[in-house]
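Q&A log
Question type: sequence-to-structure
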Amino acid sequence: MGVFYTNIINKRIRNANWGDDFKFHIPVNFPFAYLCTMQQIKMVDLGGQHARIQAELDEAIANVMRTTAFIKGPDVTLFEKELAAYLGAKHVIGCANGTDALQLALMALELPAGSEVITTDFTFVATAEVVRLLGFTPVLVDVHPDTFNIDLKKLEAAISPNTKAIIPVHLFGQCSDMEGILDIAKRHDLYVIEDTAQAIGTQYTFADGSKKTAGTMGHIGCTSFFPSKNLGAAGDGGAIFVNDDALAAKITSIANHGMGERYYYDYIGINSRLDTLQAAILQVKLRHLDEYNTARQKAAAAYDLGFKDNAHLQIPARTTNSTHTFHQYTLKVLNGDRDKLSEYLNSKNIPNKVYYPVPIHASNPYVDLCRYDISQLGVTMQIIDQVISLPMHTELSEEQLGYIVDTVNGFFR
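Response status: OK
Response body:
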């Protein structure tokens, strides 16, 4: 196997008191299965995560079942308050999912007909989807080659008289350059809606040393509680973060059919609620979110160390003004062998994913419904053939990380 495994086995031997002079050397091609009963590696291990907090989850779920307050029960309000306190936001409004969160944000802003909304071409489709659903035009711009977050020069160049909002996506767990984005937005009188579905708990530091949490810097922040997220429900869920009282009240109303007082309607709304069972589960998991993010960061550090000397790979870049909570650990394969590496990892029972293989502008429903300049999307067109994401979750063991690192590096030898 590799040096990593030799060190693990020798550590186990020392712990077993076999003596410091006893050293285990692993022969080439020796079947490691005989040495270690390593659990199956998963891309996301929710079962292992939930097992650690099963008693807390059982109690929370049982309490909801006893009260039968399944819609807008007290756990929803409690979770919203606790998440607001955690984030440093004045208001959190739960909703049915992360896509609805983005849609509610745009509906509340009441942009004029013909508005354009700038976002990145390299992201999950929901960001542009809601813009089109509301009759606006997504304007797709390129990303930074190292962080995969929106390129500010391309963003500002794409602004037109019809531009009314920016949706920066804090991709894979690291904040976009929010200080620069907010400056651009202020100069051009634009709204900023943060898509923080992959970066809950990430901290951003401004030039003056002040810190804010992802989702609390723009006019509105949006997140998803899809089960695999850093803070994931046991089903769908989402939330909106707002510091403006009037805007929070408006979003709350729109998410409940536009009602203020019951059966009296102030806005055209939708039905998008975070149900009480999910809120109760999220309350439990919120108490562990810092622990979860730390576990992901430790796994990322192990990957970094393992790949630092591999000239065929580029590890995830870190910016100086944002922490990284690693919803995904995404490498760039620089030698053109990304797809072959993926096949090799599959053959070794190591799950992996490509986020995202097709940019939004090239997806069938969006080809003619977005504004973009293909000549200005060079980075996106390059990285869709380079990126590969490795297993990243809270339950990765030292043995699993070592096996993944040695297997990836072994492919390039």
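Response note: The first helix runs from residue 3 to 15.
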